[in-house]
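User: These chains co-purify. Model them together.
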Amino acid sequence: MSTGSAKIVEARDIVMELGHGAGMVRALKGVSLVLEAGELTLMMGPSGSGKTTLLSIVGCILSPTTGSLRIAGTATENLSPEALAGLRRRNIGFVFQSYNLFPTLTAIENVRLALDVQGTRGSRQVMVAKEALEAVGLAHRMTAYPRNMSGGEQQRVAIARAIAGKPALILADEPTAALDAENGQSVMQLLSELAREKSRAILAVTHDHRTLPHANRIVNIEDGLIVGETRQTPASAKSAAPAPACADSKTKTELEA
Amino acid sequence: MVLTLAFRNLFHDRIRLIVTLVGILFSIVLVAVQLGLYLGARKMIIGMIENAPAEIWITSFGAKSFEEAGVLSGRERHAALSTPGVRTVVPLVASFAEWRKPAGGATLSVVVGTDGGDGALRPWNLVAGDVIDIAAPDAVAIDRSYLENLGVTNVGDAAQIESSRVKVVAMTDGIRSFTTAPYVFTTLDRARAILNMPREQSTFLLVSVETGADVGAVRAGLQDRLAGSNVEVLTKAEFRDRSLDHWLFATGAGVALIGGALLGILVGTVIVAQTLYSSTKDHLNEFATLRALGSSSRYIHAVILLQAAISAAIGYALGMAIALVVIKLSEGTALPIVMTPGLAATLFALTVAMCAISAFAAIMKVTRIDPAMVFSR
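Assistant: Joint model of the two components:
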């Protein structure tokens, strides 16, 4: 079911081969995926199914063996590593499983660093970083170092870092894996709210079934192929606007049709 | 933020920072001492040549240095005086002679016989007595740093050079000899008498040219006039270079000093490179995160180079502080270490270059970084 929103990611027939010769593995076998603004998409599947490889390709960190990818309207084929870095800088925010915060920097400095990389400097850098931390509920923890923060707080800093540059796409790799149930729910609630900003798409890889109610869309991947997709109204949207729940499941065959 | 990140990366691991700084510090002190010794030796070797007002030196053929030259017959002086462009030709005697201490014992000295007239080499940096005092009977001037070597304690003390009695009437400061044999200034005639040298003879003829005269042309004129006299006509720079070549390079002393300095640079570079590489390796995941966030290679290289530059600045400041203490302690020794603004600037440039080169391995490591590793933790 399409929402009619802008297409932030358009991946077509993505094939990814890892290794060479007899040791070569086909991690992705022709995956097509479109992510639209305003949606939180969860990607689920067993270990080794190709989730992280697809996330890396959509994040312009890996280049596919074959297939085409457009991020916010820009084709990524034949772009140099520096050009791909530029594309990430301008359009993509990342949230990592282990947060990947800089341990020697405070919360606000971690966010400012991401802005610095994007070229936002001076007082504007500080202002935007503060706004991002306030948006994730960490206005009181700006000068705390990651070692003095809980896992949930660290992940919120990581989310603030991802959203500070106002990217069109946020990619999250197991964002709740290192968190307890309460913090996990809180982080997913936050991602869901961020996705509702119509200019942004969020793709999160997860094993955590507790995260499912927060998603607009759930994509199942197995053995390098997307095998199913479910659309739904996220729980937060239901509570915000009590529209009738809408679930729409498709099989692999339906998707390819 | 680049500077902040570089600072935090460095100061995060204090032990490693200390190792880095010790490496740089060790390198700076070693290079400062070695090059300072080289400059000190150089200053001593060319001191007499530089302080003589002559533009041209007439020496015996094959004279190696100020202390090692043969004898001129004296006829050369008249030929030189008649050369166009020559203003003055002043004889100078310099030769090793035995100084006999008043309390017994002897040491080698270099007797420098000079008259105080126009164009002559006179003792400088006098701290006791006066130049004209040397004209008094038996009078000599010595450097105060050699009092102990010469077995005297003050102006007025007497001693003996070869078989001649001498009396210290003046003292200089800082006129030291590379040969370790102290210079003893006296009059030309007295030097000749001490050294049993005939009245007309000398070791050098110091030639001053007329104002506006071309030194090269005067030198060529002197060479023509003195052709067949078994002498050499050298400009001040030529004689200075020849002396330096002899003492610093023919003897191997200078090569050892420069070699030591190079070793210091090498050791410093290796230590800094190793610690910087290991720091980069420890922060590799952070650099991969930066790369994933879209930072350019240049941004990451700037962090590493700034880490190197901060290490260089701190290491240089600490190293120079220690080097200056060592230099202070070396004052009054046989081979004082010299520090000049030029050497200080050279050392700073060397430190920065050393750290920049050290950063190369770390930059290579980061250049090959795979940002996909951020998903593999």
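Residues 14-51 of chain B form the longest helix (38 residues).
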